[in-house]
Amino acid sequence: MALSRRFLILAEGSFGPLSSKTANACIRYVPDEVAAVLDSRTAGRKAQDVLGFGGNIPVVDSFAAGMIHLPNALLIGIAPAGGQFPDAWRSIVCDALRAGLDVWSGLHTMLGDDPEFAALAAVSGATIRDLRRMPSGLEVASGRVRDVEATVVLTVGTDCNIGKMTAQLQVQSSVRQLGHRVNFAATGQTGILVEGRGIAVDAVIADFIAGAAESLTIEAAAEADIVLVEGQGSIIHPAYSGVTLGLMHGALPHAMVLCAQPSRTSIHRNPWVSIPSLSEMIRLYEAAMEPLRPSPVIAIALNTFDLDDREARLAVERVRSETGLPTTDPVRYEPLVIAEAIAAFHVERVSERNVLSPPAMIG
Amino acid sequence: MALSRRFLILAEGSFGPLSSKTANACIRYVPDEVAAVLDSRTAGRKAQDVLGFGGNIPVVDSFAAGMIHLPNALLIGIAPAGGQFPDAWRSIVCDALRAGLDVWSGLHTMLGDDPEFAALAAVSGATIRDLRRMPSGLEVASGRVRDVEATVVLTVGTDCNIGKMTAQLQVQSSVRQLGHRVNFAATGQTGILVEGRGIAVDAVIADFIAGAAESLTIEAAAEADIVLVEGQGSIIHPAYSGVTLGLMHGALPHAMVLCAQPSRTSIHRNPWVSIPSLSEMIRLYEAAMEPLRPSPVIAIALNTFDLDDREARLAVERVRSETGLPTTDPVRYEPLVIAEAIAAFHVERVSERNVLSPPAMIG
């Protein structure tokens, strides 16, 4: 990871808890690398005031005002549906490239392929990092991920944009504190931004979704006992379910953690799709995995950001009671119960494997 | 469908039952659109003699000899491993473009991006049709396909490469004979070649699988009462399940036809994935559709090509008995029972819809 990054985050007109996903993840997970946020609508406030986290990171109203905070990179801070570049931002990106700032983008539009941007970067020596660029040399999935010894855990969701990556990152620290070597396999532009590596599986050619997931999982497993694979979309999402299932069948998780937002009753931007009960969602996910590798849902991560504390606690209790599974909001509360469920699953799996195939030599 | 196409099929050195897949599909499904095959090795024979089907379509030994049969398009008739363009064919493609013939290709190499080909096409006014090119302007799926009035039927399979497209094309003629306006929505390169339009959904960026399927279905529904959508992969395929589910949720079929090969017990090239019973496959497909649009499997299309006649009839009987659904091998036998199941489903759906929302004006 480039520790020397100092981002000016471009979120013009969009900085907020739900509308600037990439910006928010960057602020939450690598706040030390954020110089300022550019959004004229919320300018003058601090990230903490806008998002509820982020401390004193300032929000500024112009590129020039942002430069006062000495950024060395511009991060495109939104992830709109379809991932197109908002043309109103062109002049800001041009200003950044002229000033020699690297540009990081998780959009589907490859900014590095834009002739104007490419020319400006060539002149100033800036680098354009398109996080969603499909790597070359991808293969279709073959099931070779079955040889991985690490325990693979995938987050899955009732919907997209529900906190799967956030839950995973919170849980990762907690699993590590329990004494396990754990790796995070980033599958989306934001996870890649935070982790410094990964493949945006929603941006590869469709035939290679599972192959990309397989390759990522194998790579992350090389130095870990437990691999947490970043989930994407939802198996019931009308636009992104293909990415979700391809990721499931490519990563072949041994277990899954289901993420849900208690207040959400229908799919984001698709009110015509009602979200079924969590028991039904668990049944759907487990049934979809069963023919390839039985993979139980072993914990529930709730996103209760829009509930007051009493409502949040009630929601956690209700879900724990409905599903019989360890449940918490791993951002609002301690992620430990989820980490413990993962660690316990891992320990049991390892001991079962050792019984089934004892090591050839002992001592 | 572009009824005016007359293909000269380029299969130089490769025309044969196993070595010219694209040529053979074209000859099998749209023989009236094939003027001649160019292959100096088998020149002088008829397609029937080389393939065992294709009637009197002549094989010629040169581009000039092919032109005598008045083609208006050149089809690249092979799908070699890697999908690259054989450079020995360059002069023939140039000749064709100079003569104003359109060029159709299902290769991975985009012929339209070749500067020499593009320049010749620009001069002569010929069109280069790269069947695998991802169309520009694709959008993520939004559910607008729900406004379609036509009955949408998707083929799904226990595996890939099991005869979904072939079954669909056989059934299409049969549904038409029953008096319905029916359209085929092609989702793979061969289907696109046969139909003259479509999108290879396995070749789009992963986030757009469902959007491509939605767009295809809406287009096909504009002039039809029944749309048959070409299925891809399988919901249990370890490499391609993402394409399958994205296609399902993008096309939002009202009903599905399940394709299976009785002799196949595990996934093609993935023997570690056993194919569940057909009842279980039906349950999986229906469960995956349920949250978006309940969509029953209404018929079974078997591919019995590798069974003798007695085994084939027993297989059909056994599956009919196991599933309780109309079952046949629509290539080996009459596809009528599947067509009738689709037509009956359509008629019932229309009558239910008319009861629910009667027309504002009658007469």
UniProtKB/TrEMBL annotation, chains A, B:
Domain D-glutamate N-acetyltransferase-like C-terminal positions: 140-333
Domain D-glutamate N-acetyltransferase-like N-terminal: 41-133
Origin: domain of life: Bacteria
Pfam family membership, one: DUF1611_N
Matching SUPFAM superfamilies: P-loop containing nucleoside triphosphate hydrolases
Protein name as catalogued: DUF1611 domain-containing protein
Source organism (scientific name): Gemmatimonas groenlandica
